[in-house]
Amino acid sequence: MIFINHSIPVTKKISLGGILAGFIMICLLAASLLPVNRLFFLAFSSLFVSVMIVKTDIFYAVLLYVTTAALSFFLLPFKSIAIAYITFFGLYGIIKLFCEQIRNIVVSWIAKFASFNICLIVMYLMAGLVFAEGVSSRLPLPLLWLAAQAGFLIYDIVYSMFIDFYHKRIERIMKNVFRS
User: Fold this and answer.
1) pTM for the complete prediction?
2) ∠ at Cα 146 (141, 151), nearest 5°?
3) Quick one: CA dihedral 8, 18, 87, 44, positive or negative?
4) 3-state secondary structure the chain
5) Which of 87, 110, 90, 107 is nearest to 48 (CA)?
6) Closest by CA position to 89, among listed 32, 123, 42, 52
7) What Rg, from alpha-carbon coordinates, does the chain have?
8) Each residue's pLDDT tens digit, 108-156
């Protein structure tokens, strides 16, 4: 794992971070303003952090997350989208990197589900603090929790497929278009 990659100039890392931050904020604004596909845009916004990890290193990915988390909290009209991004979607690329460094696949999945559930609890508690009426649903909380576990499993598999697709296709196209 590369914490700081010195082979890429800092200016390229910062400019890539700015471009990716712009894409993330566009996705988060779409999640805030469009009445449909909020979860899709939140999930799509999380993919850009993994692009930063692949192209640069973990330090600049964390910097990208911190920047976009602050921007989302101050710029988004609906704080629920910002809370979801700050507590889970923005962090997940970084969490996934560390969990997949574990050699044992069972322990790796346990770590992923544990971190997801911690993020879910933090998101639930933050939503209760930000919104005076708290979080309510017509469905029982245990049923929502089970649905969230299934959704997370699908999300992680699709996330891995995106990273694989990025390595095989997008990165090659970008190298040909933008010769570095």
Assistant:
1) 0.86
2) 120
3) negative
4) CCCCCCCCCHHHHHHHHHHHHHHHHHHHHHHHHCCCCHHHHHHHHHHHHHHHHHHCCHHHHHHHHHHHHHHHHHHCCCHHHHHHHHHHHCCHHHHHHHHCCCCCHHHHHHHHHHHHHHHHHHHHHHHHHHCCCCCCCCCCHHHHHHHHHHHHHHHHHHHHHHHHHHHHHHHHHHHHHCCC
5) 90
6) 42
7) 17
8) 999 999 999 999 999 888 877 666 555 566 778 788 899 999 999 999 9
- Joined together, the tokens standing for residue 175 give 């190298």
Residue 170: per-residue pLDDT: 85
